[in-house]
Description:
Blueprint (H helix, E strand, L loop, with lengths): L1 E3 L9 E10 L3 E10 L5 E11 L19
Antiparallel strand pairs: 1-4, 2-3, 3-4
Amino acid sequence: xxxFHVPAAxxxxxxxxxxxxxxxxxxxxxxxEARNKTTKQLISTCNKIVVVTLGPTGSKTxxxxxxxxxx
Length: 71
């Protein structure tokens, strides 16, 4: 569910930040924000994005992740 707070104009540089909020066995939940890189004004937010890992046959597959790790 994306919430739009202000419009972005042509030529604006938009930065997007994404944070993992929950790790499931086959899924990962995240939240995201889009901001104007110059003014830092919040453009859009999404509090829940869910992605599911699928195997070669299209079935859910465990991803083996439990936390974000910096490499």
